[in-house]
Specification:
The protein has a single domain, classed as Undecaprenyl pyrophosphate synthetase. 36% of the residues are buried. It is an alpha/beta fold. The longest helix has 24 residues. The structure holds farnesyl diphosphate (FPP). Farnesyl diphosphate (FPP) binds next to α2 and β2.
Length: 255
């Protein structure tokens, strides 16, 4: 039999064979959060600049969202730029700002047509260029009425910064120390309406949180995969959900 032609670097034959229908009989996470890691390594392995890896990550992001929609997952959070990522080389930071802006311009209509509400979690500080903020605001306004799923892009986001911001807001409102409890802090997080992630996936083989959703991940199931982000497809999401369905969540209690 003649083997099927594949482009160099095409990993499609390596995709896990699990499909959405296999998972719908079990618990499907309400909120999936993803650390999209490994773009730089994906590019380096091909002798390409790191920025090419980010660019290839766009297809992965869109396919993961498609997969989440197939499963009916109502909340998706993607880590797109951390408060620490300003430490990356200036060229890469500049590229990432422009890339996030152009990605929104390219994809917001498509996401809107699919019923996805776009939101951003993170600090709107002076380092984020005005035109990027403008594009973010336009995307939020365009999709504000959608409820099929909410895609939160964590951008200039840090979990510690979010907790600091929550505490500052309580202090600024004069909330007395005795009233500062978990409920009060949660109410001041960037999106108190959002349930905590049931499942957090990090690609590229790194097994750490890197300042992502520190408060919200307290009881999330964590799945780490070796797949580099640009190679990630909905089947990898399905595989992670299958793993999630094998886990037993106890929240500090007993089974
Ligand atoms: C955390 O690792 C990872 C992130 C903050 C994700 C960064 C993702 C991008 C820059 C690409 C975004 C891609 C698309 C398609 C929008 P870290 O490297 O900040 O932390 P570490 O140093 O602990 O590994």
């Amino acid at each position: 039999m003649q083997s099927e032609y594949r482009e160099p670097g095409d990993r499609s034959a390596d995709l896990p064979s699990v499909v959405a229908a296999d998972l719908l009989g079990g618990p499907v996470p309400r909120h999936v959060a993803c650390i999209m890691d490994g773009n730089g390594r994906w590019a380096s392995r091909r002798g390409l600049p790191r920025t090419e890896g980010h660019s290839a990550g766009e297809a992965a992001l869109l396919d993961a969202v498609e997969g989440a929609l197939e499963l009916g997952i109502p909340w998706i959070t993607m880590y797109a730029f951390s408060t620490e990522n300003w430490r990356r080389p200036a060229d890469e930071v500049r590229y990432l700002m422009g890339f996030n802006e152009s990605l929104l311009a390219r994809r917001r209509d498509e996401l809107n047509d699919k019923g996805v509400r776009i939101r951003f979690a993170g600090r709107r500080d002076w380092r984020v260029p005005k035109r990027v903020l403008r594009r973010m605001d336009e995307s939020v306004a365009l999709t504000a009425g959608n409820r099929r799923s909410t895609l939160t892009m964590a951008f200039n986001y840090g979990g510690r910064a979010e907790i600091v911001d929550a505490v500052r807001s309580l202090v600024a409102d004069g909330v007395p120390a005795a009233k500062v409890d978990e409920k009060a802090i949660r109410s001041r997080l960037y999106y108190p309406d959002q349930p905590d992630p049931d499942l957090m996936i990090r690609t590229s083989g790194e097994e750490r949180i890197s300042n992502f959703l520190l408060w919200q991940l307290a009881y999330s199931e964590l799945v780490f995969t070796e797949v580099l982000w640009p190679d990630f497809r909905r089947q990898h999401l399905f595989e992670a959900v299958r793993e999630y369905q094998r886990r037993q969540r106890r929240y500090g209690g007993v089974a």
